[in-house]
Design a protein that fits this description.
With 220 residues, this protein is α/β, with parallel strands linked by helices. The chain contains nine helices and six strands. A six-stranded parallel beta sheet has the order 3-2-1-4-5-6. It binds adenosine-5'-triphosphate.
Length: 220
């Protein structure tokens, strides 16, 4: 039997969402059910400090996230990074949410394994687990392979089979059906005139068309 959960569990999915796609949505659904989350908040970055300038503006990426998740119960868009502006550091966002919600709820920062492998380079990355758990899923079949020693040590110390009933501090893995798509590949396809209905919600495709996003050279 799974241990009982006494506190609210809030999943946080940060990303560029340029544009939001089936990989993000599948990840959020899988995390919600595997980690027994009460809600998932999608948090688009204002400016991704680790990525080149993206194709759509922050406001447009936020608008597309809203369109994608509006119909889904328990999924919410969180505009704080877009409103804050400047480089979006996850630790600032977690501290902000923690100050707002208090010490009780479990926060679970969700990510694909590509992001976890990158964790050592995150701004104040060492402090993330003071504010939240990390819920991680494999990004695809090709993302196995050896881990950096620092990450391997962190997983030894903080990795758990299941999310403990605590507000923060652990790393857990969950599985999701593989969705082999990235926003980068999508933007390239959209620039060629593709309309990938199976990968992007119809309302988001309509928004992309209306605002003429990702055309020609804008797909980087
Ligand atoms: P890009 O190609 O620009 O890097 P992306 O879709 O990978 O785009 P983000 O929008 O920043 O990047 O992703 C937000 C989060 O969703 C990240 O933690 C990322 O690992 C995860 N993610 C994105 N696509 C997938 C996918 N297909 N499967 C699993 N996780 C994914």
């Amino acid at each position: 039997m799974r241990p009982s959960v006494t506190r609210p569990r809030i999943g946080l999915l940060g990303g560029t969402f340029d544009p939001v796609h089936a990989g993000h949505l599948t990840l959020a659904h899988a995390a919600r059910s595997a980690l027994r989350l009460d809600e998932v908040r999608f948090i688009p970055t204002a400016r991704s400090w680790q990525k080149d300038d993206a194709g759509a503006s922050a406001e447009q990426r936020l608008a597309m996230v809203r369109l994608a998740i509006e119909p889904i119960d328990g999924f919410h868009a969180d505009s704080r990074e877009v409103e804050r502006g400047g480089p979006s550091y996850t630790i600032d966002t977690l501290e902000d949410i923690r100050a707002e919600l208090g010490a009780e709820p479990a926060l679970v920062f969700l990510m694909g394994s590509d992001q976890l492998r990158n964790l050592a380079s995150w701004h104040r990355g060492d402090e993330l687990l003071e504010q939240a758990h990390i819920g991680c899923t494999r990004r695809g079949p090709g993302d196995g392979g050896p881990l950096e020693p620092k990450l391997a040590a962190l997983l030894d110390a903080r990795g758990r089979d299941a999310l403990p009933d605590e507000p923060s501090g652990s790393i857990v893995f969950f599985t999701m059906p593989p969705v082999p798509v990235s926003a980068t590949a999508l933007r390239a396809g959209l620039a060629r005139g593709d309309r990938p209905r199976e990968l992007v919600p119809p309302a988001v495709l309509d928004y992309i068309e209306t605002h003429q996003l990702y055309r020609r050279n804008s797909a980087n």
